Amino acid sequence: QVQLQESGPGLVKPSQTLSLTCTVSGVSITAMNYYWSWIRQSPGKGLEWIGYIGFRGGNYYRESLKRRTSLSRDTAKNQLTLQLRSVTPEDTAVYYCAGSIGTPDTGVINRADFVSWGQGAQVTVSS
Question: 123: closest CA among 44, 42, 61, 45?
């Protein structure tokens, strides 16, 4: 059973960097054809895909967030990391990591397209 768990600060000041870790269990993050996405949901809005890192380590980002986002991984710890720079209150959201087999549809996010989701981490951007 694939399980994911997000962790990180719940409060970030404007202009700082949001950093979250996703710990994966039940499968190696390098397992063939697995793609690991970060997704967020702001208050009153739908799910927004941020980016993914693939089993070979390649990244693909949402165009509107690309210049502020970095995704990385630690294969020894089986962990994924999201960094979002220069945050504003508009980045306040619940942040999820999710795993899919094959590249996910990065348009409309459907929970059923992913084999597993983390429980989500609330991040508030406020001074």
Answer: 42
pLDDT at 105 over 90: no
DSSP 47-107: EEEEEEEETTS-EEE-GGGGGGEEEEEETTTTEEEEEE-S--GGG-EEEEEEEEESPPPSS
Terminal C-alpha separation, the chain: 39
Which residue in 4, 2, 1 sits closest to 119, CA to CA?
A: 4
Q: What is the pLDDT of residue 107?
A: 84
State the virtual CA torsion across 76, 78, 74, 92 in degrees, nearest 10.
-160
Question: What does the block give as tokens for 37?
Answer: 């996405």
Structure tokens at 102: 């094959």
Question: At residue 65, what are phi and psi to the nearest 5 degrees?
Answer: -115, 0
C-alpha closest to that of 62 among 49, 80, 75: 49
pLDDT over 90 at 95, yes or no:
yes
What are 65's strand-pairing partners?
A: none
Residue at token pair 């165009």: 63
